UniProtKB/TrEMBL annotation:
The lineage of its organism: Eukaryota, Fungi, Dikarya, Basidiomycota, Agaricomycotina. Keywords: Membrane, Transmembrane, Transmembrane helix. InterPro entries: Chs7 (IPR022057). One of its GO terms (biological process) is protein folding. The chain crosses the membrane at residues 68-89, 101-122, 128-148, 169-195, 215-236, 243-262, 274-291. GO terms for molecular function: unfolded protein binding. Coiled coil: none annotated. GO terms for cellular component: endoplasmic reticulum membrane. This is Uncharacterized protein.
Length: 307
């Protein structure tokens, strides 16, 4: 089969816990499930996605605990990200504090949705799973705009924390969220023919969804890294903080490689998605350390009491 740009089939076939594959299950099942040969179209037992090589079965099927490893990883990541948000909030005078806090909050919101959309405890094809997966996709696209927006604002093209900063920053968050969620809902529920169904069906093709969920995050992360290298080396004339951002980039790349290359199931009980979640959260934690290292002179940790 010839693979075209925008085809999800190669990812959905080999990556058991790739959440965007949930959006194609109903489309294929309602049109022609015979295009695939697996039994993944039994809604009572189907795991995440469409026709994966080794999906984790629906919770309770043959004693399945659902995607328990990733559920635990997401829960721990939620607690860790809340701690990071608290750490940003308490740095009242730090540059870019509000915008960076928004980035962390958006990432925090993606975690419970990731837990649900890859957890194998909502029936495939259900409206609830499709809607939650679409919202998850929208939040991921918005989160990566917030990441890039933080990089742009670090140039101080406008003053951070002001209306001139927050209005465009928030506008694009809403725009990316709304556009991606709408496209994902259309792919998953098929209420129009603008973004679906896939043609041919077996390719699971959606170029807009592929761009916003697979291409855009990588592009935004790369552009953010370029901005931060420029700021740290060209403006601040420092070297040490750059290693935080390089390390965060490496962790992000490893998390994606884990999803796409290493995420094979183990006896249909766990897959590599929990490692990807841990690596993504570690990347966020390192970004926090990088942000702290270049804003520490602005921190207002000590209160001076005149004698």
């Amino acid at each position: 089969m010839h693979t075209r740009f925008g085809d999800f089939e190669p990812l959905c076939h080999t990556t058991p816990s790739y959440p965007w594959c949930n959006l194609f299950w109903r489309q294929v099942n309602d049109t022609d499930p015979s295009v695939f040969t697996s039994n993944s179209f039994n809604a009572a037992t189907a795991g995440v996605g469409v026709n994966p090589d080794c999906a984790i079965p629906f919770v309770g099927t043959d004693g399945s605990l659902a995607n328990i490893a990733n559920i635990i990883a997401c829960a721990l990541s939620i607690a860790f990200t809340i701690y990071l948000v608290w750490g940003v909030i308490r740095r009242r005078a730090a540059v870019g504090r509000l915008e960076f806090c928004i980035l962390l909050i958006l990432y925090l919101f993606t975690l419970p949705l990731q837990l649900i959309t890859t957890g194998s405890f909502l029936h495939q094809g259900s409206t609830a799973l499709v809607v939650l997966t679409a919202i998850h996709a929208g939040l991921v696209a918005a989160t990566f705009w917030a990441l890039l927006g933080n990089g742009i604002l670090s140039t101080q093209i406008v003053e951070d924390g002001t209306l001139s900063s927050l209005i465009p920053f928030s506008f694009f968050i809403v725009a990316f969220f709304a556009a991606t969620t709408y496209i994902a809902l259309d792919v998953g529920l098929g209420f129009t023919t603008v973004f679906g169904p896939s043609n041919p069906l077996v390719n699971l093709n959606s170029i807009p969804l592929f761009v916003l969920t697979s291409v855009w995050p990588g592009a935004a992360a790369l552009l953010y890294l370029v901005f931060m290298i420029y700021i740290i080396l060209g403006v601040l004339n420092e070297v040490r903080p750059i290693w935080y951002y390089i390390l965060a980039g490496v962790l992000f790349v490893l998390s994606q490689l884990d999803y796409f290359l290493l995420s094979k199931g183990t006896a249909q009980k766990i897959d590599g998605s929990f490692v990807a979640t841990i690596l993504e959260t570690a990347a966020v934690g390192v970004l926090y350390l990088g942000w702290r290292s270049i804003t520490e002179e602005s921190w207002d940790d000590e209160i001076y009491y005149p004698r």
